[in-house]
Every structure is written in structure tokens, then in C-alpha cells.
Amino acid sequence: MLRSFLTRSLLVLAFAVVLTAVGAAGYMAVEGWEFHDALYMTVITVTAVGYEEVHPLTRTGQYFTMALLTGGITLMGMWFGAVAAALVELDLNNILRTRATMKRLAELSNHVIICGAGRTGRQVIQEFTDLGRPFLVIERDRRRIEELEEDLPEAMILHGDATSDEKLEEAGVDRALGLAACLSADADNLFLCLSARALRPDMMIVARGYEEDTMSKLYRAGADHVISPNISGAIQMASFILRPSVVSFLDIATHSPDLALRLEQSEVRAGSQIAGKSLAQARIPQNTGLIVIALRKANAGPHDFTFNPVADTVLEEGDTMIVLGTPQQLTSLREYVQK
User: Coil, strand, or helix at residue 273?
Assistant: First the structure.
């Protein structure tokens, strides 16, 4: 759209330059005026400002002025047309983009609603993008939206206040898998958790909290998990001192472009080809390259994991596997267990 407007503007400018040059040359030839007088007369004629003539015109000069005035009106019409076309295209593009977003949103399910596209929100967005998992962003800062659209043209973004019930419903909170509260203020995240929990009592909510006394309030407001950058940073600093090799390995494994590993969970669903088989029979490492590092049985508590399960452990419907591997291997696992 911007390129089209620039093209039209250059054409109008070229026409204006040619018209002005022709007008000035014409007055110099027809009336014998000096260049300055001829240029001034051309400009006031083309722009139709209505000033009096520089010098008395001959009949030929009058006819030339009428022709030049017609060209000036045409020039202004071209310019207003270019501006009007740009405005119409801008509005049409916004309408089409909004309709496309709403159509995609109506078909979206099991997605994660990421509220806020600041520093924390962008990191969450990047993680979901790398893993190819569906997500939707709610952001009220137009500048951040433009930056995100430039970096991730396919990302679904809603402009508005994430703490509003109407905006959460528009984002498909009734069909969402979870919500990440990444707003800049703890108070906003607190209010967001209250609203989201009221709308979806069974949805996973993860919130960011800066202040230590806010974390307990976020839990009471409905957050399932609260992440504090201050605490996480302090733990990482201590880990670098106490366990430098472990931290270095994890840092390389999770950030190196050559070895980007992810911890992921995978549930054994009804009808999956691995349901009822042992880990040895499922052959997950051989078929996907993933490592099964833990298993939680369907009837176990949320924190009851079996680490490094033995090969004869039977996988049953509802069991949750914790696996380690690359994003490509995780995609292979999802396709493998669904067969």
C-alpha cells in the first residue's frame, strides 16, 4: 500500500514539474517575459490561487493561461485522487485484515492466549513460534503490535485491553488451552487472572509477578503458576556458581541453534497406537529420537512422577510422558502417537 502511494505521488510530482516547466517556457515564448515572472505566473495559475496577472496578457497569452489552468486543475485532481486512494486502501486493508483474523480466530482452538507483548511476552511468543504451537496475542500498544507484525506476519494479534472480559471472549477463552499473563504491571496481571479464572475455571493460567508479595495474591486470584523474573534470575546466578557445567549444558542445549532441546509433555490419548504397550514396545527413542525422562500415571497426583521409567513400564490412556528433544522430534512424537 505504501509503495503504491509513493508511485502515485511520484507520477503527480513528475506531472507538476513538467507542467511548471512548460508553463514557464510558454510565457517566456508567448509574452517575452523574464524567467522569474514567467515562473511566478505559472505557479499562481497552476495552483489556482487567483492572484492578479504579473503583466497584461495578449490574447494568445490568455488562451495559454486557460490551458495551463486546466492542467493545474488536473494536477490537483490527481493529487487528491492519490491521497483518497491511499486512505481507501488503508481502510480496506484494515477491514480485510480484521475479517481474516476473525475468521482464523473462529477456527482456533486449544490455543494459548498471550496477554502482553513486552519483553516477557515476546520471549513466550518466540517459544511458541519455535515449537509451532497455536497462540494468540492481546496487546494494547500499537507500536508493539506493529513491531510484532513486522517480525511475525502470521501471528494472530488482537488490539485491546487484555483485562477486559469482552476482549478475552473475543480471543476465544472458552476454547483456549491456557493463558499467559505477561502484562507490565502486577496489578494488571492480578486483575487479568481474576477475569480469566471467572470465565474459564478449568483453564491453565500462568502469570508473571515482579513483587514477592504479589505472587501469593496472583495464586489467590486464580493463577496456576507464577513466574518471578527476579527469583528465576537469582536461582540462575547461584546455579552458575554451584553447578557451572550443568548450567552451561542447559544454556547450550536450549539456546544454541545447532542443539535446541525442549522439555515437553505428551499425553497418551485414547486410540493412540502406543496405548497398552510398554516403553520398550513403543520404541519412542527409535521412532522419534526423543528421550523419555519421566512418566506420570493417569491416576497419580500432579506432582507424582516416575523419573527414568523402566522399559517394561506400560503406557496407559491418560498417562503423561515428559520427553526431551528438538522441536522437530517433538513434532514427530505428536504425529507418531496419533497414528
Answer: coil
